[in-house]
Amino acid sequence: MNMEFIEALHELEKGRGISAEILFEAIEAALISAYKKNFGSLQNVRVLIDRLTGEFKVYARKTVVEIVEDTRTQVGLEDARKLDPNYQLEDIVEYEVTPRDFGRIAAQTAKQVVVQRIREAERGMIYDEYVNREGDIVTGVVQRYEQKNVIVDLGKVEAVLPAQEQIPGEVYQSFERIKTYVVEVKKTTKGPQIMLSRTHPGLIKRLFELEVPEIHDGIVEIKGVSREAGARSKIAVYSRDPNVDPVGACVGPKGARVQTIVTELKGEKIDIVNYSTDPQEFVANALSPAKVVGVYPKINEKVAIVVVPDYQLSLAIGKEGQNARLAAKLTGWKIDIKSESQASTLNIIPQGIEEGYETYNEYEEYSEYDEFIEADNYQEYQENGQDIDNGHTLLNEENAVGEINQADDEKYAYNNNEAYDADFSISEDTQKVTEGVLERAPREIVKDLKADEKISVKEKKKKGKG
Q: Is residue 84 part of a domain?
């Protein structure tokens, strides 16, 4: 060995990141094996390589004993003290036994060892890099198909995307860049084996961390993810800052952030809901986009009865129960969805507040607006000079319209009967109320009344001609 070899080892250290000391130790261990193999020596030896000059020497190691039984591994105490008077029993004495023609063998062995160690070191470095990225997202390039598995190039190593971890119906083109989730990293004799996934719920979480700065900064937190890959996913988000809307932060301006994720997942639908420590509110939010009338949870059994409007029942359940299934996974509650008519028929809604039940109604938070609506109605009728007494005016107006319609029908019927020649009239009270109704009636009602009046005039003219 010479200085060029030493310089080459230091270049490998800089270029490949492999410590030169590790290479020196590996070469020394290989030279020990080569010495014993080529020179048939059974004695203990040690090889020392000078880190500066590259020169190497072989030393035989013998143990100091009183009575020598094996000269290859033992030396007498008197002989040892001839070399150094400080030797004691059980000490190790080294003798230089470097062969003259050992240089060629050493060079061949050193080359093989260095190449092997470089490979092992690179594999070890790749393993150490990716074993710490388990549960993280990586970007790779699709290389090829091997049976149903997809081989993805991550740069330094190729990873495997198994068939069961692929999104159903998704087709991967060669040299297409895709984002995947690192499920597992195994250490094998051929190097690290990295298993990827496109169906893992963690992929959704990591994609949102990449796209939403508020999640990356810790202001918004993803509390839970439930997913049916390729179809729909639900995530529950929570904001530590009351001034930050977690759902709006994830959706982004004009839906730009969530649309980027949907595009990456080839059109998979994503529902973003608010997380709540209150199970009733959380269950109601998780069933989004369906509207919930009431939630009646059984705390001890962790079962929630959810009542929805009749027209929202199919939306709450979802296609093949998908929406309800994802909501149950997200909340950890067993959800029983009933329509309002079913709930009233089966009498499954607890009456009052029973033990173990709590109620939630999403419309309760809007009850304050009912007062403003009632005040607006009162002001409207006051402007028209009418008094409101528990809705009696409205009832009287409806009765008056009904009386007019009935009178027109009867008058038309009686006019067709020649035997009937009586006068027909409407009471003065009804007439006054009617005038008020007509003044404020919609255009459609006015048109209908005028049309009926024209028909009556035409019928009278026909009878006059007859």
A: yes
Q: What is the rounded end-to-end Cα distance, in angstroms, of the chain?
A: 136
pLDDT of 91 > 60? The answer is yes
| 3-state SS, residue 184 | strand
At 306, list the tokens.
């959810």
Domains: count for the chain: 5
Query: What is the phi/psi pair of residue 446, to 5°?
Result: -60, -45
pLDDT tens-digit series, residues 412-463 = 433 443 333 333 343 444 344 344 444 444 455 545 555 666 666 556 555 5
Give, as one character, the DSSP assignment of residue 219: S
Of the three residues 273, 295, 310, the one that is the final residue of a domain is 273
- Do 65 and 11 lie in one domain? The reply is yes
Do 16 and 45 have their domain in common? yes
CB-based burial label for 433 (10 Å; 0-12, 13-18, 19+):
buried
The residue with tokens 């919609």 is 442
The token duo for 220 is 């918004």
427: which 2 tokens? 């009471």
User: Is 13 in the same domain as 114?
Assistant: yes
pTM (predicted TM-score): 0.59
Please name the helix (run of DSSP H) or strand (run of DSSP E) that holds residue 450, with its range, or none. Answer: helix 443-465
The CA distance from 105 to 34, in Å, is 7
Among 316, 336, 364, the domain boundary falls at 364
Tokens of 412: 């038309």
Residues 171-188: tens digit of each pLDDT: 888 899 999 999 999 988
What does the alpha-carbon distance between residue 119 and residue 328 come to, in Å, rounded to a whole number? 49
Residue 330 included in any domain: yes
Q: Are 350 and 331 found together in one domain? A: yes
